[in-house]
Amino acid sequence: MSRYIASVIALALTAILFTSLRWTDQDYSWEADESVAAVLEALGEKPNAKPDFSVDGVSAEAGKELVLYGITKGPNGRKVSKQSKHFVCTTCHNIQREDPDLSVVDPQARLEYVHEKGMPFLQGTALYGVVNRTKFYNGDYEKKYGDLVKPARNNIREAIQLCAVECSQGRELNEWEMESVLAYLWTIDLKMNDLLINEEDAKKVDAALNGKGNKKEAVKLVKSYYLQASPATFVRPPDNRRTGFEEITGNPENGKLIYESSCLHCHKNGEYAFFKLDESRFSLDYLEKHIPRYTRYSLYQVSRWGTSPMAGKETYMPNYTLEKMSNQQLEDLRAYIELSDN
Ligand code: HEC
Ligand code: HEC
After folding, report:
1. How many CA atoms are closer than 13 Å to the CA of 74, on its beta-carbon side?
2. Closest Cα to atom 37, ligand 1: which residue?
3. 317 alpha-carbon distance from chain centroid
4. What is the pLDDT of residue 143?
5. Which residues of 69-98 are buried (b: 16+ CB within 10 A; e: fewer)?
6. Per-residue model confidence as pLDDT tens digits over 180-218
């Protein structure tokens, strides 16, 4: 009998402990989907650029249509001209979160994450959370776009405009379109539950929010959970295209993921490019034949240097920086393409 009482007491204690743990877990001053920017503001941070809703016709819905389809209706109710003939923003950028841990650059973790979610693996950084970043076209993008990068480095509107004209090879956005795109981007800003914030740090941030801790420290803590800017390193193809990167052994299964999630996103049925690729042996043999060559059909060259817009065809292929495709992944792609029986 006393054993029975003891186990009832133990059970009750466990239940109390369990509910109290869950209770403390949820007892922060923010909701899971609370915007990170709002928490930072509450901690005294100056907000990043917000849209100007006083401009006639500005709306997040119009901005979303411009980003997804390149087209929307203007304040006068008439359709605007297509922003770009060939591309939309989502040709090169995801609009959902694409990294499992937002505080590190890890293209392999990203590939696995986007594959699981059925999203593409792209050359541009996700627009999800772009309004939380403070520097744009970082690292080696200066080499590609030269002085054009200067005004865009610290200014999100200039960064969007640069992309509309140079990356998208389209027309400039006018004022209400720009403010609308910015308004839409603010609907896909980072949320508190996107950060892998640990309990100890969450408690410190919570205390600061309630006037019981150091706000500056709390701001630093929150910011340590996501990158403030997306780094970019341009790298060369291997010196010898026949042998490739000799110290790396390619994994064809991983290469297949890259081919399907990245190359086919644009090339399947000529979705965003004139040059068509598919899963057939014909496509793969064509790419295989060109690997060692010094032409834009070599996957080494086209991945690392991209292509330039050709006269009459404004399409071009953006290069993959090291952050968007590692050398290991490039060899994985080669290994997949060279498999004779896939
Ligand atoms: C053909 C590909 C392509 C298209 C289309 C494109 N972009 Fe980009 N965009 C890029 C690349 C590549 C970068 C380089 C920096 C990065 O994203 O890491 C970039 C950078 C940006 C940046 C700065 C991001 C950062 O963190 O540095 C913004 C903002 C942006 N693009 C917005 C847009 C918008 C809005 C559109 C549609 C109007 C668009 N882009 C269309 C390829 C593209
Ligand atoms: C963001 C879209 C996009 C992605 C992703 C992409 N490409 Fe491209 N690619 C293009 C565009 C646009 C061109 C320019 C020529 C055209 O329109 O066909 C091009 C050109 C090429 C060319 C040269 C063809 C020619 O006629 O000039 C090859 C080869 C190529 N891509 C292979 C690949 C491979 C392999 C991958 C995956 C690693 C890949 N592409 C990923 C858009 C893309």
Report:
1. 11
2. 89
3. 17
4. 86
5. ebebebeeeeebeebbebbbbbbbbbbebb
6. 999 999 999 999 999 999 999 999 999 999 999 999 999
> What does each C-alpha distance from 121 to 41, 98, 190 come to in angstroms?
32, 9, 20
Alpha carbons 59 and 181: distance in angstroms, whole number: 8
Tokens of 256: 């297949």
Residue 340 CB-density burial (10 A; 0-12 exposed, 13-18 middle, 19+ buried): exposed
Q: Is the CB of 28 under 6 A from ligand 1?
A: no
**Residue-level pLDDT at 309:** 85
Please state, in angstroms and rounded to a whole number, the distance separating the CA atoms of residues 328 and 153.
Answer: 30
C-alpha–C-alpha distance, residues 94 and 120, integer Å: 7
Give nearest CA residue, ligand 1 atom 13.
124
> Is residue 307 exposed (0-12), middle (13-18) or buried (19+ Cβ within 10 Å)?
middle
Q: Which ligand has an atom closest to residue 306 CA?
A: 2
pLDDT(23) > 60: no
153-157: which pairs have CB atoms within 8 A and are 24 or more residues apart?
A: 155/49, 156/48, 156/49, 156/130, 156/131, 156/182, 156/185, 157/49, 157/182
* Confidence at residue 16, expressed as pLDDT on a 0 to 100 scale: 54
pLDDT band at residue 335 using 50, 70 and 90 as cut-offs: very high
| CA dist., res. 281 & res. 43, Å (int) | 57
Task: State whether the beta carbon of 88 lies less than 6 angstroms from ligand 2.
Answer: no
Q: Which of 302, 304, 331 to mutate to test the pocket of ligand 2 (most atoms within 8 A of CB)?
A: 302
Rounded to whole angstroms, how far apart are CA atoms 49 and 132?
A: 9
Write down the pLDDT at residue 2: 64
**118 Cβ partners below 8 Å, 6+ apart?**
none
